[in-house]
Amino acid sequence: GRCERVKIDPELIAAQQVKIRPIVNRDAVKAAAAQPTLPYKIVLVADKQIADPLRLVASNQVLQQKLSIRWDTSDGSSVPFDEVRESVTDARRFAWQPYMMAGGGGVLNVWDQSAVADSPADPPRNLSMFSILGGRAAVEETLQLQNLTVTNSDEDATVDVDSLQGVDVTSHPFDEMLDGQPGGRLEMANFVPADRFFVYIGKPESIPALLDTGAPFIASMGTVLTGNCLQYNLQSRYLARLGMNRDWLDAVLTSGMTSEIALFAPDLFFIDGTDVTVVARLRQPQLLRQLLGLLGASELSSESVLELPTTTGGSAYMALRDDLLFASTHRGELEQSVRLHQNRGENSLGVSSEFRYMLMQLEVSDATRIYAYFSDPFVRRLVGPEVKLGQRRRILAKAKLEAITARSLLARLDGHAHADSMPDLVRSGHLPESWQSEGTSIDTTGMVSSKRYGTLPEMRTLPDVPVQKVTPAEAEAYRQYVENYSRYWRRFFDPIAVRLDDVGSDQLELSTFILPLVDNSIYNGLQMSLAHQDDKTQLSVPIVQPAPVLQFSVNLKEQAWQQIAGNFSEFFTRYSGASPAMMDDFGPSVHVAVFDADPIIAMGSGDVFGAFGGDVLRGSGNQMLMLPVALSMLTRPCSIMVETKSPERTSQYLRQAALAGNAPERRTRDFGVSFYQVGDLDQWVWTMDLFGVVKLRYGVEVAGKYLVIRNIPWSSEDHVVSVLPAELNAAMLQANPSACKQQLPGLFAAAADGNRRAVMSGLGRLYPFMLSGSVSVEAAAREHQRLFGFYPRELADDQWTWSNYQLISADYGQPNRQRQPPFDPDQPFGLMNRVDSLQVNMQFEQDGLRSSVRWRLR
């Protein structure tokens, strides 16, 4: 198309019967330009008369000018706050706007609107290649943790929750699948109910070091995945609820007193609050009794259940049976586990045919640190009506508690120093009157609590607030959820097993096995294209030197190669001169190596994964795989290695194509192609000229058993030094952050950009606390933790300060004047600075998926 600027033709406008409306009001622009100054309104609210004149300094950040103002307020009058509320609110919004937009939720959003308790939106799904190959996307699809959408109504809860039909999908016939074999065995699972999330810790002595070294890595990963820097302190929170502390835990674990540990929970809502039960096998029960005395549990006997008061105001529960210590946040959960021990594991997870079969597929070995298991009954429980509707109600209650807490802070800012009751907040106009009679209260410290759900930092768990009856609207919402969820399944429900192993002395490997995959999922297209375990096709991965920063390898099915040949044979023949028969020799594997460079255009995530790390995987099958490859070829130095069954025949086809040179049939008006040989070598250059403006050159050669295509043929020095088999045969994604040199500034920019957004979000959350009277940023963070149960943390080496009523980050500025630190090659940065290498491998197996993620930390 073409665009040009022309004068408006009145006759043409009349003939076409159209109207032209200017976007810019020229009269308003002229009037504004003619004004030497712009009027501003300054609003001052004080709780007492101010005798002396005020001296103010107004700053113009664009002109970098300051204006000194002397304001005599002696003629001010005492008026009710309601009379100036609108003016004050407008002035505040002008100042709050940058922080509110950066905050992405929190107190300012409530201040800016009314006391409306909105449910938090579900986070967007990540469809990066790392997420898909690593199995995370499959786990998300299986667990379906999104919140129910229910229209608010005033209906009474008249529907019995037990009358609601849950997800009705058949389980696998695990007894038949065992085929008379005993299957795997893990005795600690004999003390776990079958419908609980289960974690087995095979090396308890490694947990303290894992918590210390893994916590910063997990925090960095959380910032990358969520875009915020919120600290929930889950470790100390759950230890406190168990009546323990970190020093006591370290003393027990590092002493070798425990040989193995089982942990289970009724749901996965660890941030909102769930119950945790721990079963530890003891090597020295008598020695542990001495340490239990430090917790006030010296009276623990082998026949009773001991209740201990905790620092959180609740109770923890402990029991000792034989060489097993039981500890739980919920008495009922602990008693279930003790009964399973008494009944020798009857009806437990450990004796179920499902778990014994899955242990055969993903066994526990001496190298296993952690083994996590999502059983069929647990997934059914998680998507069942009691948990699903119970969590929805708790989320709504949480949103309301957050709104009341925020409005209480606003009342404090408005001068209501003693707004310490719901009636006070209603009288001052900060809360609607209808909220008084809903079992909610606020104490003198500003802590808001619900009679049913507790406080925000210590919300009651779902087993503590069981759902018995629901409204018709809730019942209908759950019915629709079940209908949509059931569409995912073909025949069977699926369990999920996850295992963390030591690999050698310096690597860890996370393995996942899901059986089966859900239907209508993002994996359906890949299953049509990628090799299956039953294909008996080995994925042979070329080892390339110099090491690429990223390498992606796939084994394609024969039908996928046929589809590629059908789609590209005409293009390949017409614009390269090579016979389409050459494509018959291709396969089964294709490999893409991306080398170090500092690209001008950052694709996908902008980090070391590039186009393979972004949320760009759309389409199905080959399209899903081709897009990140194509984006990489256009922006980064790349080599594509296509396996060929007959390297010599492939070379002959290429020699034949070069004989045609730049034949007339390869040229069109806007598209020219040439294909020529490099000297006397079996190397060729394939050139495409687009419109005489863009020229693409690709180097082509046959090296070993691969046809190699390079997008920078004149300067690439990469070569295949060997070929190694992958453990799983469908796909592998390898990242080598240590190979990054030239692209470090670009990676730094991507990491700093993510950090800046996270910091701005944190500033937006703490800003209202500073306005409400916190004496320091540290005090504001503590108050946020006390009232909400979490706080925004400063990033390493950053510092937040309060100056002139602005909350400022030393490294990243403030929302209306953002900045990023300069690149320093000597300073580590980003998530990958802790990782030397990362490898993701997967295959389709039976009806499911197996994946492994292996990494080496620096």
Structure description:
The structure is a single chain. The chain is of the alpha+beta class. Among the domains are: 10-89, no CATH class; 187-349, no CATH class; 386-466; 530-743 and 835-857, no CATH class. The strands form eight sheets. It has a 19-stranded antiparallel sheet, sandwiched between helices. A three-stranded antiparallel sheet has the order 12-13-14, with helices on one face. β29 and β30 (806-809) form a beta hairpin. α3 (81-103) packs antiparallel against α22 (744-771) and α22 packs across α23. The chain starts with 9 loop residues before the first helix and ends with a strand. The model is unreliable at 114-119 (pLDDT under 50).
Q: Separation of termini?
A: 53 Å
| Secondary structure: number of strands | 34
Mean pLDDT: 84
Class from helix and strand fractions = alpha+beta
Counting DSSP H or I runs of 4 or more residues, the number of helices is 23
Could you give a short description of this structure?
The protein contains 23 helices and 34 strands. By secondary structure, it is of the alpha+beta class.
Considering the chains and any ligands shown, give keywords for the structure:
3-stranded antiparallel β-sheet, 858 residues, 34 strands, alpha+beta, 19-stranded antiparallel β-sheet, 23 helices, 33% helix, single chain
